[in-house]
Q: What sequence folds into this?
C-alpha cells in the first residue's frame, strides 16, 4: 500500500517564507511601499512580491510537497527536486527585487535583473508544477480537492509567464502597443492568476482535506463542493479568455471580466458555505487553536472578496488595495500562519516521536504546543489586519504603519511559538529530555512501504 | 467457557495495543476502533488488521510499525503481520462510547 512520507524540505520552504513575511511587514511598517508610496511604485512592487512569492508561494509549495501525497495517496514524484526549486525561486526573487529597485536608480543596478529574476522564478515554478502534476497524475483517482490544486498549478504557470513578460516590459526589452496594453490591463490579470487562481485555489484544495482531517468531519463531496470547483474552473476559463483577447487585440474584455467576477464570487460563496458545513458536521466538539484561527482566515476571504467587489464597482483604488491586503495577508497569510502552528508541531512529532510509538509512551501532537500562549498573538495578527485594511480605506498612513508594526509583532511572536515546538520546549516534563531535532532541515528516514 | 491460549494471547495483544496512542486524537487505537481484527494462529503467528483515522496520513506507516512492535513484545507471539486497510474506512462511530463522549 502506498503511503505519504515526510517531505524533508518543507520546513526549509516555511523558513524562507517566514523570513520574507517578516521583511515585507518590516518594510511596510517603516513606510516603504503603498500606501506611503504609489500602488505601482518600485518599492511597492518589492513589498508585494516579497509577500506573494516569498511568503505565500513558498509557503504553499512547501505545504503541497507535504500534503499533495496525502491528498492523492502517492509519494512525491522526483523527491530530489525541492531544493533545486527552492534555490531557483529564492535567487529569482532576489534578482527580481533588485530589478524593481533598479527602476528607482538603486546603486545603478541594471534593470535587466527584472527579466533574469523573472526567468529564474518561471523556471522554479515550472519545475515545481511539473513535479506536483506528475504526483497528481500518478494517483489512481483524483478527489475533488486535488482538482483545486491542479487548477492552482495551471494558474501559477500563467501568472509566472505573465509576470516574466511584464518584467521584460518594465526592463524595456519589449515595446510597442502590446507593452502599453500589458501594463494597462495585464497587471490585474497577473494578480488575479497569482492571488486568485494559484494561491486561493490551492489553499481551498488543501484546506478541504486538512479541515476535514483536523475536525474529524466527513469529507465534502456534495453539490456545494462541485459548485465551488466548477465555478472556479469557469472563472479561470474566463480569465484565460480575457488574457487571450488582450494578447490578440491589445484591449481589455469587460464582459469576460464581469463573467469571471460572477463565477469567482459563486465559487467563494460555495466554498465558504461548504467549509461551514464541515465545521457543523465535525465530530470533534472542542476546536483546537489552529481550527479556531482558520475561521478568522476564512472570514477574511469573505471580507476580501466583498471589498474587491466594492472596489471594482466604485473604481476606488484605496478599497482595491485594502481588498488585496485582506486577501493576501488576512485570508492566505492568516490561514497560513494558523496551519503552520499545527503543521510544524505535526512534522516535529513525526520526526521525534513517531519512530518510538509502540516502544515507549509518546506525547500527542498537541502536547508540543501551548495554545494559551499562542492565542493572543493570533488575535493580535488578525486585529492588526483589520486595522491596517481600514487605515488603507481611509487613507491614514500613520495608523497603517502602526497596525503593520503590531502585525509584525504578532508574526514574530508566532515564529517564536513555532521555534518552541521545534525545540520541544512546551512538552510535559516526561519528555523534556528527548533529543531535539534540527531546527530547519530534519534528518528523516526514507520510508516506502509497498 | 475457559479461555484458550490463543484467546489469552489475543487479550494480551489488545492490552498491549492500548499503549499505542493516535498522535492527533490523543487516545489509544483500541478505544478509537482502529484495530479491526487480531487473529492468533498456531505457533504464535499473529495477523492484525487496522486502519488510520485519515487516509494516507504520513503517520500511517509509523502506526503500523508501532502495532507490530507492541504486539510482537507480547509473550507467546513469534511473528506479527500488520495489514493496513481503508475498507471499510474509519469513522468516529467506531470509537468506544466512553471515548466518544469525551471527544
A:
Amino acid at each position: 500500500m502506498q503511503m505519504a512520507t515526510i517531505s524533508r524540505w518543507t520546513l526549509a520552504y516555511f523558513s524562507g517564507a517566514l523570513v520574507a513575511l517578516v521583511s515585507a511587514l518590516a518594510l511596510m511598517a517603516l513606510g516603504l511601499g503603498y500606501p506611503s508610496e504609489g500602488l505601482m511604485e518600485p518599492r511597492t512592487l518589492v513589498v508585494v512580491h516579497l509577500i506573494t512569492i516569498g511568503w505565500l508561494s513558498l509557503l504553499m509549495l512547501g505545504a503541497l510537497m507535504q500534503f499533495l501525497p496525502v491528498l492523492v495517496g502517492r509519494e512525491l514524484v522526483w523527491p530530489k527536486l525541492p531544493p533545486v526549486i527552492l534555490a531557483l525561486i529564492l535567487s529569482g526573487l532576489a534578482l527580481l527585487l533588485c530589478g524593481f529597485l533598479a527602476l528607482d536608480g538603486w546603486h545603478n543596478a541594471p534593470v535587466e535583473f527584472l527579466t533574469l529574476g523573472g526567468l529564474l522564478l518561471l523556471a522554479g515554478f515550472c519545475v515545481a508544477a511539473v513535479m506536483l502534476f506528475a504526483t497528481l497524475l500518478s494517483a489512481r483517482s483524483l478527489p475533488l480537492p486535488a482538482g483545486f490544486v491542479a487548477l492552482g498549478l495551471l494558474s501559477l504557470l500563467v501568472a509566472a509567464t505573465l509576470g516574466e513578460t511584464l518584467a521584460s516590459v518594465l526592463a524595456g526589452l519589449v515595446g510597442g502597443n502590446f507593452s502599453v496594453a500589458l501594463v494597462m490591463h495585464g497587471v490585474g490579470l497577473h494578480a488575479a492568476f497569482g492571488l486568485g487562481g494559484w494561491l486561493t485555489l490551492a489553499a481551498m484544495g488543501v484546506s478541504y482535506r486538512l479541515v476535514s482531517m483536523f475536525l474529524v468531519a466527513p469529507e465534502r463531496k456534495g453539490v456545494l463542493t462541485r459548485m465551488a470547483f466548477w465555478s472556479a474552473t469557469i472563472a479561470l476559463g474566463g480569465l484565460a479568455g480575457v488574457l487571450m483577447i488582450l494578447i490578440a487585440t491589445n484591449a481589455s474584455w469587460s464582459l469576460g471580466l464581469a463573467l469571471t467576477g460572477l463565477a469567482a464570487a459563486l465559487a467563494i460563496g460555495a466554498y465558504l458555505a461548504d467549509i461551514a458545513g464541515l465545521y457543523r458536521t465535525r465530530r470533534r466538539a472542542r476546536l483546537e487553536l489552529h481550527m479556531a484561527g482558520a475561521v478568522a482566515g476564512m472570514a477574511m476571504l469573505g471580507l476580501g472578496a466583498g471589498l474587491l467587489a466594492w472596489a471594482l464597482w466604485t473604481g476606488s483604488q484605496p478599497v482595491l488595495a485594502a481588498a488585496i491586503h485582506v486577501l493576501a495577508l488576512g485570508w492566505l497569510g492568516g490561514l497560513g500562519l494558523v496551519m503552520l502552528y499545527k503543521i510544524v508541531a505535526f512534522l516535529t512529532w513525526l520526526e521525534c516521536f513517531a519512530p518510538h510509538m509502540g516502544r515507549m509512551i509518546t506525547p500527542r501532537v498537541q502536547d508540543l504546543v501551548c495554545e494559551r500562549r499562542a492565542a493572543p498573538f493570533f488575535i493580535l495578527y488578525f486585529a492588526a489586519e483589520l486595522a491596517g485594511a481600514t487605515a488603507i480605506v481611509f487613507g491614514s498612513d500613520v495608523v497603517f504603519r502602526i497596525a503593520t508594526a503590531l502585525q509584525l509583532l504578532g508574526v514574530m511572536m508566532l515564529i517564536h511559538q513555532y521555534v518552541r515546538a521545534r525545540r520541544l520546549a512546551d512538552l510535559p516534563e516526561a519528555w523534556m529530555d528527548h533529543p531535539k531535532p534540527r531546527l530547519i532541515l530534519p534528518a528523516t528516514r526514507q520510508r516506502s512501504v509497498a | 467457557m475457559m479461555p484458550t491460549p490463543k484467546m489469552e494471547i489475543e487479550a494480551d495483544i489488545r492490552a498491549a495495543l492500548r499503549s499505542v496512542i493516535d498522535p492527533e486524537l490523543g487516545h489509544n487505537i483500541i478505544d478509537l476502533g482502529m484495530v479491526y481484527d487480531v487473529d492468533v494462529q498456531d505457533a504464535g503467528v499473529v495477523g492484525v488488521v487496522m486502519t488510520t483515522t485519515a487516509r494516507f496520513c504520513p503517520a500511517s506507516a509509523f502506526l503500523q510499525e508501532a502495532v507490530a512492535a507492541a504486539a510482537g513484545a507480547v509473550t507467546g507471539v513469534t511473528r506479527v503481520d500488520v495489514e493496513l486497510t481503508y475498507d471499510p474506512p474509519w469513522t468516529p462511530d467506531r470509537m468506544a462510547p466512553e471515548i466518544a463522549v469525551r471527544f
